[in-house]
Every structure is written in C-alpha cells, then in structure tokens.
Amino acid sequence: MKPNPEKTNEEVFDEYAKLVKEKFAMLKLKGVDIDHLRDSIGATINEDMSDSELFSKLTIITQRLKDGHSTLTGDTVFYYDFTVGQPVAYDHDMLFNNYLDPAIESGYVTEYKDAQGRPDYFVGYLPLNPDVAYLRFPSWILDITDDGIEDVFKKISNYKGLIIDLRDNGGGDPVLATKFAKYLTDDEVYMGYERFKTGPAEEDTSVSKLFLKPATSDYRFVNKPIMILTDIWCFSATTTFMYSVYPLPNIKFIGYKTGGGAGSVASGILSNGWLWDLSVSEFVDYEGNHWDNGHWPDIEQLIDENNPQVDEVLERAYREIEPLLK
Fold first, then answer.
1. Please, is 49 exposed, middle or buried when counting C-beta atoms within 10 Å of its C-beta (0-12, 13-18, 19+)?
2. Domains of the chain by range and CATH?
3. pTM for the complete prediction?
4. Span 293-297, average pLDDT
C-alpha cells in the first residue's frame, strides 16, 4: 500500500465545501449559499498558509451552518455555540439548594446515581404540590434498563399531574429518550418526518415519516396534565423527546427556547486528517415546524438571577398545572 499523496490547501478546502454541499441537510433552512462561500473564501486560500490559518478558513463555513451538531476538529474542536447571548431559564444551584436537596433529604424525591456514584435522574414529588410528580433528567445518558423505566412510571402512576424538568439536558441517547416518550401516550401518533440529504442538489432528499407508539405497559402516564421545563441547553436527544410528545394535547412546554439539534449526524475524516461532523437530516413536525433551530415553549418564563431563592420557571409550572388537576 502506498500513502495517499499530500493534498494542497485548496484541495482540502474544496473537499470540505463539497462535503457540506452534498451532506448538510439544512442549507436552505439556515440561509447558507455554499457555492458563494466556496468561491469567496476559496479565493483567499494559498499554499503559504499554515494549518491553523487554513483551519480558520474552513471553520467560516462551519460557523455559517449555525448547527450545534456540525463540528470540525483539527488541533482544536470548532463548533457553533448556540447558547451565546441567550437568557437564563435554569440555575443549578438555585434548583438544588432550594428545591431538590431539601426534598431528597425529606424523602419526597429519590436521587438515582450511576455506577460512578454521580447523580443520574430524580423521581418523586416536590412539597410545592404533593399531587404532582416530578421527574428530572440531566441528560439522556442514563444508567437505566427497560425495567428501570417501567419502575419510574410505576412510581408516579397515581399522581394527578407530572412535571418533567429537562433544563440543561444536552442530549445523549435518542433511543432512550423515545422509550420514555412512549410512556406518555396510549395511541400511536404521527410526529412528523425526517428529511435526509442524499446528494449534492437541493432536491436530493428522502423523507421518513415518524410515529410514536405507546409503550406496552400498565403504567403509561396519559390523559393527565404534563408540564415540560426547557431552556437553551435542551439539545439533540432532548429535542427528540420533545418532538415525540409535542402532538399530545395534555402537554405544555414552559421555560425558554431550546437549542435544537434534531437531525441525524454523519462523521468522517478529511484527506489531511481533520475530523468533521455534519447534520445529514432535519426534523419537521406534523404542523410543518422545523425543530433544528430550537423550539419556543408554549409559555415563556425566565428566572431572575438576582433572586437566588426562587426558581420562577419551576414555580410557574406548578401554577399552570394546578388548575388542571382532577
């Protein structure tokens, strides 16, 4: 075997631009003219550039995609930070110091930990209303089995309402997120479709319709009011969970706009060894909403960082759910 010939700076740039054009699924949604970018940036590239200078040129394209899943990795990792300048709808210390830790100590909430002893997820209720179950999932990388999911919903099955706190949940396993979503419906529902990029032309796409099927369980939490708390950090598999339950009429989202990241991701290596990730699909719900730019809640509510004793998002959720309890 002979080593691959070394690529010029122009060839590496053209390779990346071609990959983006052929694979990235949301050029139109994000308002990206990839041909113009390739021509305008390409005209500035020469063979005297260092690797770091060339890398910075490629990342101009990555930045323009405005997609948290699309990254470029050389000596450093470049990604689009969708959280910059966004308001606050979650404060870890505020939630734990004033709500979760006292409830854990009093036995209202059970804190489940992973194999390394780190907090994994929380199940129980808060003293704000003992008729409303409270679930918190800091991520969708959970140390939990299918039987464990069943046990979660068995524990909360007799409550009159449910609050699911997904704030600061950056994602993880979308399959696991969907397993939880299945416990919130007793009918198969049409969620929308995933549109995959299949070639270089804008029309080179294929569509896969998505349906949420109910879990086979006696402990599905259905026909009761559910409030889901969100913020800008809700991303990737959290978006999967959200769009899965979005069609259900008994669910409301409270907090702030999410980070999006609904698409599937492909990865590869450029000829010079740099790694790339690109979103190769996008999700469009049954109403025609594109979720990759984030999803606005039904009720927008932020927290007051100057009032560290009160989680306004959490308490607003309780105010909204209480009139709906039966």
1. middle
2. 9-79 (no CATH), 92-264+280-324 (3.90.226.10)
3. 0.94
4. 96
